[in-house]
Amino acid sequence: MSASVIQTVETKVAMYDRSHWGRIQVSDSDRLRFLHNQSTNDFESLKSGQGCDTVFVTSTARTIDLASAYVTDDAVLLLVSPNRREYLMQWLDKYIFFADKVNLSDLTNETVSFSIIGSQSDAVVEKLGASEIIGKPYGTHIPIPNLNAEKENIIAVGSGLATQGYTLILNANHKEQVWSKIIEIGAIEINDNDWEMLRILQGRPQPESELTDDYNPLEAGLWQTVSFDKGCYIGQETIARLNTYKGVKQNLWGISLNAAVEAGTVITAGDEKVGKLTSCTQNGNNYFGLGYIRTKAGGVGLKVKVGETEGEVVSIPFVSHEYPNSEQ
Question: Is the sign of the CA dihedral 226, 255, 60, 88 positive or negative?
């Protein structure tokens, strides 16, 4: 199936059911300030109908989760990784103090989420009557047309991968109606294994693989989720120092491999240990991994061994390795 999945997203449109991901609603009047202080992106500049990706980190800037956030008139909807929902509910609750006007609600069981992925995704959105968001910035969202005006019925720019597409979050009682309509329009359903392959090929980091206590968001290549201009937030001092002093000591890269390799396997260049493999997938007859490699060892084109298997470092579209304010 793998080759056909890639062909589908390159030439047609795929649909993936992300309903097992977590959906957390943050409401009340301090919601934006609260999320601004709890994660890496700039929430206080966002208006209703806008959104962003953000990373929740520990006080030492180790990664907890990469989440997508959508700001509505009276709440923020967070789409979080499946294995991070309960942890984040508890983590965020711990930081709500007595005077804070913030409410957390776990909407996972009463809502569903889909990703529409591929070069023809605009055509699907047009047929859903949501063409006004085509071409808008990442995270822009509107209510899904022809559904009740519940605030959790939204369609947003961004597929969750580097490929063009859209994300829908909707009330669970509309699931069959919307799912069948999108399939009728011509989307091809993909499964968890297909998503996992696309995630690894594109370099989207996930908790317990690339997002762990061992890594920070800049090492994970998630520069686009970090605001360097906003005030204090959890982990901010460490991230600011890494940026100011160009202190990122390892980067997440793709690795083209000759065979399948277990995650956790040591990566060497010459006789030197330079990193660790975090994920591996098969794409047709090819094998592909993600791994962290020491910055000084090199980047694209570096020949490595992962265990006993030969590999070569390649770029991955979901991440970047830039210092955006290096000229300052």
Answer: positive
* Coil, strand or helix at 245: coil
How many Å apart are CA 113 and CA 115, to the nearest integer? 7
Tell me: the pLDDT tens digits for 99-121? 999 999 999 999 999 999 999 99
* Separation CA 297–CA 311 (nearest Å): 14
Tokens of 48: 């209703």
Position of tokens 């699931």? 175
| Helices 2-11 and 192-202: angle between axes, nearest 10 degrees | 70
Q: What is the CA radius of gyration of the chain?
A: 20
Average pLDDT of the residues in 72-92: 97
Contacts of 202 (CB under 8 A, 6+ apart): 161, 162, 163, 316, 317, 318
User: 40 Cβ partners below 8 Å, 6+ apart?
Assistant: 54, 55, 56, 57, 217, 222, 225, 226, 227, 233, 235, 239
Of 243, 238, 249, 250, residue with least CA distance to 228: 243
Ramachandran class of 301: left when φ > 0, alpha when ψ lies in -120 to 50, beta otherwise: left
- Residues 153 and 163: their CA atoms lie apart, in Å, by 23
- Number of neighbouring beta carbons within 10 Å of residue 194: 21
Structure tokens at 204: 């989207």
| Cβ-Cβ contacts under 8 Å for 129 (sequence gap 6 or more) | 145, 146
Residue 234: closest CA among 219, 210, 216: 216
